[in-house]
Amino acid sequence: MTKLEALALKALHAFDPERAHGLALAALRLGLVPLSGPVTSPRLATEVAGLALPNPVGLAAGFDKNAEALAPLARAGFGFVEVGAVTPRAQAGNPKPRLFRLPEDGAVINRFGFNNKGMAAASARLARRPQGAVIGLNLGANKDSENRAEDFARVLSYCGAHLDFATVNVSSPNTEKLRDLQGAEALSALLAGVMEANSWLKTPLPIFLKIAPDLSDTEISEIADVARAQGLSAIIATNTTLSRDGLQSAAGREAGGLSGAPLFERSTRVLAKLSKATEGRLPLIGVGGIATAEQAYAKIRAGACAVQLYSALIYHGLSLAGEIAHGLEALLEKDGFATVAEAVGTGRDAWL
Prior knowledge:
Blueprint: H1 3-12, H2 17-29, E1 46-48, E2 51-53, E3 57-59, H3 70-73, E4 80-86, E5 99-102, E6 107-110, H4 119-126, E7 135-139, H5 148-159, E8 165-169, H6 184-200, E9 207-211, H7 217-230, E10 234-237, E11 257-260, H8 264-277, E12 284-287, H9 293-302, E13 306-309, H10 311-316, H11 320-334, H12 340-343
């Protein structure tokens, strides 16, 4: 992190967290944020679900909910970018305040509730997306929807022509009963509808599933079985947690999903268990608590083919993506791995 970036972060932290988030996006759109440009090398370049990535460090959904900063984010050092979540209709989300910094814990709590401008607005921006970048969309369901499973398929059908991949998000804790869709029967029915909608696209997409960290071993095994049966291309593990174990910050008891440093071990254990349950045959993307190259490397060795981050950017700035990618290359080289793929799952047993 440069001195200028450190000063900018300090200034942003003087604002309400959601206001600061909006200001950061505005600065990106206006070209006021220094960007690292592409970060890649033969060792970092990898393939996940048929997608050629310049490096395995991605931006998680939630940072750019409405696909407003696609061009600058594509130049920020990420190997791939996921925007959203987007629902069929625009919705305001939950009442404010709904985003809380937990600086003593290196964490964030949010209860946004899928606030976004809807699929029509997102599709219009995605149609102008930068070429050459790998961009995906997190699919959401409206809070008042009578058929949430159908909502996912609708967003995919509407926006799919402008995407490289799409993620079914049934793991947000901020939409009532959404996580109930992770049960084997409900999940199988939901994914069947999404996969049917995907088959109607001119060019069908890799479809990912994002799961929660608050799952039992039985639930993890069931999700693995459903994912394989429905022909999913990858699973993202994991979304935010409802746990509040060990928090020190004053805002630690706020309702919502907890992300950041406290999530790292919990999410990595779920990742490793999922890797074992899928026998390494289904690509996994590790997310949750990554703030260093060492943590990204740990996720990869636990079974992830690629990783995503978001919350750490609040404390370390956008330059973190490139820093982690460069650090990851050094760690791979140190351990004698010629590619990211060679390292995947080599340390899984330590997390089981």
